[in-house]
Design brief:
The protein is 47% helix and 18% strand. It is α/β, with parallel strands linked by helices and 338 residues long. Helix 8 (175-187) links the parallel strand 6 and strand 7 (192-195). Helix 1 crosses helix 2, helix 3 crosses helix 12 (277-291) and helix 8 (175-187) runs parallel beside helix 14 (312-333).
Length: 338
């Protein structure tokens, strides 16, 4: 039966009254196919770093699961803030996602006087993809020439040469930057901070001998460590990494001076606030399935990463706790944007 326009409006009002307009709209959206075009995953750092590595590991898995291309889009700058802002201001339609980090969603709020986005209000968490330790590395030739074989040696050299050593990072406010700042504050050493637009460019300068030390995410530094280009002095987690079982933690290697030192990283998918929950849930479920496969598990663990896959609610709780933790680290270390 076809109603005139006025009658259709009246019928709609009656249905809204009986069922609730929100319910009707949700039901209507649930019938909308998604995705019908490519989805982009914004990586807020340059290619070659751990954020980029993880995004490129997940993209083909999601492409297979949903039958549409998931494309990695690198938008580096300002410690991840440039890329995070791009996603925060995108349409909440499920076609723009962010591979967020402990920097963009745990550290930057405390480190920057003003952010171009709100890490809580402007995003909806989807799932944690992986957690990784950082690793304190030096150029192998430089370490040898300086007589640095361990963390204690490094502290000795840094104290004897205040301000003469430099410390590379993937950008201001990243966990790589903060791991180094925490080390400096606890040891009373000083190294000039060199922020890059991601781990990839920073590692190139490390390998080239243009930077002295870096507290890089383990997955992005591992190949250069195993290739002998970089010397791993310690991992920044509270326990040793299965990927480098012979490398001590900073706390182990540093003795009483570095007791309680811990500065690990994490990476997870987020979408703009307002993205329909059914899309968020579908993405989380497919990511969790992929991370649970033996092949993906083996791939990540071999790089020193711990696979995630938690629910949106669990990820939101994790982000909240990270805000509190890193705000205290920033305050204690006295870190600031250069």
């Amino acid at each position: 039966m076809t109603f005139p326009t006025a009658s259709r409006r009246a019928a709609t009002l009656l249905l809204c009254t009986a069922l609730g307009c929100a319910t009707l709209l949700s039901a209507a959206h649930a019938q909308t196919p998604w995705p019908t075009k490519p989805v982009r995953i914004v990586v807020p750092f340059a290619p070659g770093g751990t954020t980029d590595i993880l995004a490129r590991a997940m993209a083909p898995e999601l492409s297979k699961a949903f039958g549409q291309q998931f494309i990695v889009d690198n938008r580096a700058g300002a410690g991840g803030n440039v890329g995070a802002e791009v996603v925060a201001k995108s349409l909440p339609d499920g076609y723009t996602l962010l591979m967020g980090t402990v920097g963009t969603h745990g550290i930057n709020r405390a480190l920057y006087a003003k952010l171009p986005y709100d890490p809580i209000k402007d995003f909806v968490p989807i799932t944690l993809v992986a957690a990784v330790p950082n690793v304190m590395v030096m150029n192998a030739e430089k370490a040898k020439s300086m007589g640095v074989h361990n963390v204690q040696d490094f502290i000795r050299v840094a104290k004897a040469n205040p301000g003469k050593l430099n410390m590379a990072s993937s950008g201001n406010g990243t966990s790589i930057h903060l791991a180094g700042e925490l080390f400096k504050s606890m040891t009373g050493t000083y190294m000039l901070h060199l922020p890059y637009r991601g781990s990839g460019p920073a590692l190139m300068d490390m390998v080239g001998g243009n930077a002295d030390v870096m507290f890089d995410n383990l997955p992005s530094a591992l190949a250069q460590i195993k290739g002998g280009k970089l010397t791993a002095l310690a991992v920044t987690s509270s326990t040793r990494s299965s990927a480098l079982p012979d490398v001590p933690t900073v706390e182990e290697a540093g003795g009483p001076t570095l007791k309680g030192y811990e500065a690990s990283s994490w990476f997870g998918l987020l979408a703009p606030a307002g993205t329909p929950q059914d899309i968020v849930n579908r993405i989380q479920q497919e990511v969790a399935k992929s991370l649970a496969t033996p092949a993906m598990k083996e791939r990540l663990v071999a790089q020193g990463a711990i696979p995630g896959g938690n629910t949106p609610a669990e990820f939101a709780k994790h982000i909240d706790s990270e805000h509190k933790k890193w705000a205290q680290v920033v305050k204690t270390s006295g870190a600031k944007v250069d």
